[in-house]
C-alpha cells in the first residue's frame, strides 16, 4: 500500500462543500501545500473534456471526490433525473480520468443513503444492495452505488488504488440545511 505524503499534489473536488472543506482544512493543518480546489466556475465536472484537460494540466497524485449534486428530501423528490444524471456524470468523469492518468490514490466519498431503508442495525458493509433504498433519495443513492462499483471494478481489473468511504452523521462547519438543490 502506498501512503500519501505532504509532497503529493492533492485535488479535492467539492472543496467548498461540508466534507471537502473539512478535508482541505485537515490537509493544510498537516502540512500539505500542493492542494488544488477547483471551483465550479473554474471546472465543469460534467464536461469530460474539461476534466481531462484539467488533469493533463495539473497532474494530481491524489484525488478526493467530494463533489456531487446534493439536496434535501424536497430536491431529491422533485428532480430525480437531475440527481442521477449529474452525479453519474461527475463521478464517472473524475474516476475514469483519474484512472487514465494513473493517479496514486483516489478517495470517493459517498453517503449512508446507499444502504437499504430497512437495513439491519447497526449497518455494516454487507447490507449494501440487500433491500430497497429510501424512496426520497434513491436517485442520489443509485448514482453513489454506481461510483463505488466503478472504483471497485477498476481496482479488480486494473489494480486502481481507490477507496470508497461513506461518512455518516456528519456535523461540520459548512453544513447546509436548505431544502432546495445545492450543487457541488
What does this structure look like?
The protein has 184 residues and is an alpha/beta fold. The chain has a single domain (10-183), classed as Rossmann fold (3-Layer(aba) Sandwich). 39% of the residues lie in helices and 14% in strands. It has helices spanning 18-29, 48-58, 73-78, 80-100, 138-158; strands at 10-13, 35-36, 62-65, 69-71, 105-109, 162-165, 181-183. The strands form two sheets. The protein has a five-stranded parallel β-sheet, sandwiched between helices. Strands 4-7 form a two-stranded antiparallel sheet. Strand 1 (10-13), helix 1 (18-29) and strand 2 form a beta-alpha-beta unit. Helix 2 (48-58) runs parallel beside helix 4 (80-100) and helix 4 packs parallel to helix 5. It starts with 9 loop residues before the first strand and ends with a strand. The model has no long low-confidence stretch (mean pLDDT 90).
The biggest beta sheet is recorded as: 5 strands, parallel
- How many beta strands in the DSSP annotation? 7
The name of the CATH superfamily reads NAD(P)-binding Rossmann-like Domain
Q: Could you say how many structural domains there are in total? A: 1
Distance between the termini: 30 Å
Which structural class is indicated by helix and strand composition?
alpha/beta
